[in-house]
Amino acid sequence: MTDLIPRPDNPRIRRVHSFQELVVTPMAGGVNALCWERTLPGDFGEVVAQLGAGAGIMALDEARLLALPVSAAGRADIAVLLTDLRLLREHGLAPELNCIHGYPHDEEPGPVATDVYSFHADSAPVPADTWLCTYHGPASEGLRNEDALRRVDIPATRAELLRLHGGADDESFREFLHDNCYDLHYLPGPAARPFSFGLGHLWRIALEYPGCPVPPCIHRAPATRPGEPPRLLLIS
Q1: Which residues are paired to 100 by β-bridges?
Q2: Comparing C-alpha atoms, which of 232, 201, 236, 231 is closest to residue 95?
Q3: Where does residue 20 fall: left (phi above 0), alpha (psi -120 to 50 degrees), or beta otherwise?
Q4: Is the pLDDT of residue 204 over 90?
Q5: What is the DSSP string of 155-168?
Q6: How far is residue 173's CA from residue 73's CA, in Å, rounded to a whole number?
Q7: Are 142 and 195 in contact (CB under 8 A)?
Q8: pTM score, whole prediction
Q9: What is the tens place of the pLDDT at every residue in 2-56?
Q10: How high is the pLDDT of residue 109?
Q11: Longest dimension (CA), the chain
Q12: Cross-strand bridge partners of residue 13
């Protein structure tokens, strides 16, 4: 199973060749995304089909996966999923494996969309990274920092947010932006070319946190379209 990931001139991405290299390679020199590029043996379609129809996000655990009535090929796919879960847990992480039919959208759309379909950066109060792998369905998408416009820095959007805040463009306004995650969302610039994270590749991407040595990796969940298969996604 193969899928395209960014062209080699993207300076924000570094490819690695093992899980251990993915763990120990530092985020430095502007690199904010590490990719263990893999060709996995199956397409995971049988696993997804046996999970059945659904809506929203279906959390999967080992017992549910092992109980699925699948062929030998399906068993091999499940073994891959369980191995990846084990690798991340042994590294001290708390990964989740989800079958995703769709994420919730903002209930009250405002000047800045804050759902996962919007290009955004993850954030944390302490040093941390996001780990993810799409096994089936549409893959996550990324955006070079140089090609992104922070939504709150667009004058018309900022003016609308100031009206919503009801105050001056001061520290309290910046706290308002942060508390509502408005400052974490981006628009692609005019010449932007978003890239696919691809299928089967395990990624470690940078978050925004105090003292982070690199800019956060800007990414989003792909749009959910009628008739498309659900996503099988590992994330931590």
Answers
A1: 57, 231
A2: 236
A3: alpha
A4: yes
A5: HHHHHHHHHHHTS-
A6: 54
A7: yes
A8: 0.92
A9: 344 555 568 899 999 999 999 999 999 999 999 999 999 888 999 999 998 877 8
A10: 66
A11: 63
A12: 33
